[in-house]
Amino acid sequence: MKEVMVLRELQQIKAISQEYRIAVIEAFDHRPATAKMIADRLKEPHAKINYHIKTLLKVGILELIEEHVNSGVVEKFYAPVAQDYVVDSSVLSTSETTIRTIEKASIALFEHIAKDFYQNVEEGGNFPPKKINHRQDVFLTPEEAGELNRMVNEIIRDYIEEKYEARENTQRYSIASLFIPVYRPKDEFLRRKP
Prior knowledge:
Blueprint: E1 2-7, H1 10-15, H2 19-27, H3 35-42, H4 46-58, E2 62-70, E3 73-80, E4 82-87, H5 96-124, H6 142-160, H7 185-191
Parallel strand pairs: 1-4
Antiparallel strand pairs: 2-3
């Protein structure tokens, strides 16, 4: 499994632009599994999971690892191609359709993160405690925001490099960083300097 897969094709970006497919990818937990195993983990119908696995397989986000015959039934084991997926920055400046697709993928990812957060609040309370870093009303140029995003991603990537497997005394975490332009009427005023 590669550490990172760079998504360069619109079909790949479309494939991960649904929160449900992100959940399917995460259900593999960085190891091979069959569609039935994923269906059991997500408590979803096998046919529905199988459909989404085939879609992710077709665009190269999942791969077929091996096949076993078990009591006359062929079991196919799939796995994600990479631990993380990023969109190639050259794709960002292309067509309006691509931009809308990337926006849908971003929304799907955000919804998945929000779902993890709300589930933790409802079921876990504050144990283990949530770590939230939040800074609001920071004024940056697009270049400064891009540079800060790259720096944060490098630190996170380097720190978690070998932490994709469960170990003794560990808890599963969802780690996210968001750099979102905030649009408010006062920002419009600030942008319209004489």
